[in-house]
Amino acid sequence: MAPPLKTHCKRGHPFTATNTKLNKLSSGYTVRQCKRCRSEFEKLRYHNNPKRQAAVRARRNVSYYEARP
Ligand SMILES: [Zn+2]
Asked: Out of the domains of life, which is the source (predicted)?
């Protein structure tokens, strides 16, 4: 028998319909991923990576100059 579904992620966010992303694995299993944890992880990755920030800044500058006549 499958174990009962957890109601909260490991960091305590509730597994609600809006806060949960379903990931279908190639093995056939579906795992639930907490969106809050995911966005926090992405933010952390961004702030710890100067290269990434420079890339985003460069993209912004390009669109800024392109927008000017
Ligand atoms: Zn979470």
From this structure: Bacteria
